Amino acid sequence: MKKPFKTPVGGLSIEGGYGKLGFNPEKSLGFLLAELKAFFSQRSTEAYLVGGGVRDCLLNRMTSDVDLAIQGDALTLGRQLADALGGHYFTLDETNHIARVVFPRDAAPDKEWHIDLSSFEGEILSDLGRRDFTINALAIRLEDVEEQEVQALDPFRGLQDLKDGIIRGSHPDVFQRDPVRLLRAFRLARDLSFTIEEATLALIRRDAPLIRRAASERVRDELCSLLASPGAAEILRTLDQHHLLLSLIPELREAKGVQQPKEHFWDVYEHSIETVAALEGVLKQSGDGPYGKAELIPWSVEMEEHFRQRMNGGYNRIVLVKLGALFHDIAKPQMKTIDQNGRIRFFGHAERGAEITEGIMKRLRFSGQEVRAVSKMVNYHLRPGLISRGPELPTRRAIYRYFRDAAEVGIDTLFLNMADYLAARGPLLGSDEWRQYMEGICYILSVRLEEEKVIAPPKLVDGHDLMKRFALSPGPLLGKLLEAVREAQAAGVVSSKADAIKFVDKMLRSEAKGRHG
Q1: Partners of residue 12 on adjacent β-strands
Q2: Span 212-261, pLDDT tens digits
């Protein structure tokens, strides 16, 4: 008999690899399971708690996700369950009969229960045989959940792998059946602090190209989950080691081994991943910051709130700016030139990189707002360093133009620029050099935060004012004049409506003089 082992607190206490389990779920989950048991019992439907729900109980992990396998029509029963619980119903996969029911948790009304239902025919063991990893191929009959001991079905020794902290594929064709599992293996390993066993890693390397067959939305969700937490750069390196990163983003392939100017510590590819690592430092996601340079980074409660904001596709700015970091130099290989002095140049790589980034983001089915945000970060990632270069602080006019152009990702792009600068020189970056650079960046940010009128000054004149005063018609000239007034106001040249009228009058006279020689 196998040596018994128990979870630290509550949850399921395992008494052997394939035998009885003492069942003591977290209280609110226990109430939910009782309601589910009554619902399916009234309909004489065989139902099992399966997959991640069983696994998380065993590990004493709080969960809001419950997976059920039912011997019946999951779509019809899912709609009925949503009505019974006062929740919302979603069809996840009509062909394979997979549904989801979502409703608020009583104990935490700001959180929700997610109940996924899938249909199975015949024996539950056949359903478990189609699951991804041994630790997810576990089932408990819902009818048994209130008994003191319950029988856990464990056809692939998942309980032992759970005890040993191992991610193991259930079958040799586990990734061929569903290529998204290639990424899910690494997400589970990260979330559970488990190790992917070597035979499964070999299968991942063999089947990595299959990731291109998977539904883009599902690939996107798994990738963003991996990027969200600290350690994203190390995960990207691991994906690369097992042939997944370039299968997922083939546009990065050309960056491998591309030499950069002597000021750079890494080639283009390594620099791109290192920029993600540096970004986690400037976003205060990791320790002391990159290369011990954390003390000058302008972090605050406002910054933390800013990067936690979600865009309309559901992902927060932390994830999106990490994508920007990964893609920011993606066009360097095709834009590389060497001048007559032997100096390497990448003219136009930011603009071309924005175009490539837009294509990648659209392929992965990000929302329009998210596509525009990351593409803009790539397009303007050099600008903060350009306007703050030299001994003088950036001008108010330059700061105005930067935030006008970068718009909703102005702050995000500043932090991407910091990470890019850190990851260029890497451990060779001197403290004095970093301090001088950060003076300009911090000044730009302080203007954005403390002098909002520079970024969005109150309007002094509008189109109607100028059309009436100067007998102008709507058109490009009118827009040009209004933008010039806003820029002059931001630079402190004009401060009243009268100033603005005089400014426009001078512009028009100058243009007329230029036309007539």
Answers
A1: 23
A2: 999 999 999 999 999 998 999 999 999 999 999 999 999 999 999 999 99
Q: Is the pLDDT of residue 20 over 50?
A: no
DSSP string, 370-399: HHHHHHHHHHTTTHHHHHT-SSSPPPHHHH
Coil, strand or helix at 21: strand
Mean pLDDT score across all residues of the chain: 87
Give Dmax (Cα) for the chain. 101
Give 221-239 as a DSSP string: HHHHHHHHSTTHHHHHHHH
SS3 state of residue 62: coil
* Strands across the sheet containing 98-104: 11-14, 20-24, 149-153, 139-141, 47-50, 65-70, 112-119, 98-104, 88-93
Segment 37-89, tens digit of pLDDT: 999 999 999 999 998 888 888 887 878 889 999 999 999 999 999 999 999 99
Contact call for residues 72 and 152 (beta carbons, < 8 A):
no
Percent of the chain with pLDDT over 70: 89
Structure tokens at 341: 């002095």
Distance of CA 376 to the CA centre of its chain: 16
Q: Are β-strands 112-119 and 65-70 bridged in parallel, bridged antiparallel, or unpaired? A: parallel
Q: How would you write 470-504 as a 3-class SS string?
A: HCCCCCHHHHHHHHHHHHHHHCCCCCCHHHHHHHH
Task: Provide the total of helices (H) and of strands (E) in the chain, helices listed first.
Answer: 25, 13
Structure tokens at 155: 């056809």
Tell me the C-alpha to C-alpha distance, in Å, between residue 396 and each of 140, 399, 440, 446, 501: 65, 5, 12, 12, 21
Residue 99 neighbours by CB under 8 Å, 6+ apart: 74, 75, 77, 78, 79, 89, 90, 91, 92, 116, 117, 118
Which residue reads 């730009």 in tokens?
A: 444
Over residues 391-403, the pLDDT tens digits come to: 889 998 899 899 9
pLDDT of residue 65: 86
Residue 492, sorted as left (phi over 0), alpha (psi -120 to 50) or beta, turns out to be left
Burial 36-45 (b: 16+ CB within 10 A, else e): bbebbeeeee
195-196 vs 166-167, strand pairing mode: parallel
For 316, the 3-state DSSP assignment is strand
- Three-class SS state of 5: strand
Q: Provide CB contacts within 8 A for 178, sequence distance 6+.
A: 132, 214
How many residues make up the chain in this entry?
517
301 to each of 175, 212, 298, 408, how far by Cα in Å? 42, 40, 10, 18
